[in-house]
Amino acid sequence: MESLKQLYKIGHGPSSSHTMGPETACKYILANYPTAKKIIAYLFGSLALTGKGHLTDHIILNTLKEKEVEIIFDYKKETKHPNTMSFELFDSENQLIEKLTFISIGGGSIVFESENTSLVPTNVFPFSSFEQIKQYCINNHISLSELVYKYDDSSVKEHLNEVYEVMQNSIKNGLNKEGELPGGLHVLRKAKQLINSKDEFELHDIKELRMVSSYAFAVSEENASGGLIVTAPTCGACGVLPAVLFYLKAKNNLSKERIVDALAVAGIIGNVIKTNASISGAFAGCQSEVGSACSMAAAAVAFLNNQSIEEIEAESVLGVILNYLFRVKDLEEIVSKEMPLHIVEKKIPYMNEAGETVKPEAVNGYKYESLVLDMIHMLDSCLVFEVVREKEFAPIKNATGVDSVESARELLKFNGVEL
Questions:
Q1: Is the pTM above the cut of 0.85?
Q2: How far apart are CA 37 and CA 20, in angstroms?
């Protein structure tokens, strides 16, 4: 696996693959072809279709501002990867020097299209799976953060300190800005309004959700406006991990050193996903970005709670699963079939767009106790945990579906406990 420096990249949004990737390609050209005077950039696939919205043209022009630059959006050419870009380099006599084709693979990383050459950094970790990492840590009595400092670049801790500084600044900057975000869709910033939307009767859980959400909004809005952020693991999912760490640091009075160690742990999880799957939304969908970010954040929280490496692993897995996106059509088909569902109506407090706590008078939610279990056996793309129902202690239901002392006693007796 690569260094965490290749996972946590500091740069400008709004997209790690559509902004930071092209920026990296342009910097490579400047460093290796200083005599090039004119550059024609060809953007294909997703880079062409969404390049304007992602400020791809803006970052190319800004990075190559000392050169004569022309950008061509080619919407028709088919490529193996949706984030493909080519650059034709010309000298002062308008003679072609070189033609380079790059693929932006997500997280701000790029590779040459040619199989013979690449910009992928050398691996620094001699592991490719979390099972290998876990066994090494257990056998050598070290933590995940200690593993990072043992194998990664000698300056990785310094880099992680800088990463957290940028994360904090992106939150603070985002919380102090108002108005529309760029892009022409007239989307208003919400972070400042959300952090200031205090309610005298606000429930603790709602307040916690409001604060963490405002931090996440702040970073995401900085990203959307081309501000300086950190890929965690991408620009698109850059708000999740900073929001969680920023909130926990203040709530639990944690030291910066402790937060940096948590970043190292989260980075291990992100690296495992990047190595064995993908963190590119264009290539593997939104789950590869926000799902990975939630998995990383879950691992960081477990580490900060002094949980074991096995518990950190379980929390990180759950972080991905809780963000799984079910296909609506499949859900509708399942619900429409005759199945033994136990449905409970719920009145769930929530926050409205103004950040106010709303306690609904009417039912606004339902609890399906056996729906998820049925989905395990009926869908081929649903990742969930299946548990032994008789060993669950909450909720406890009797034969009529009502909580009772008698049903609790029976369940305890079934599991070898008698009261």
A1: no
A2: 23
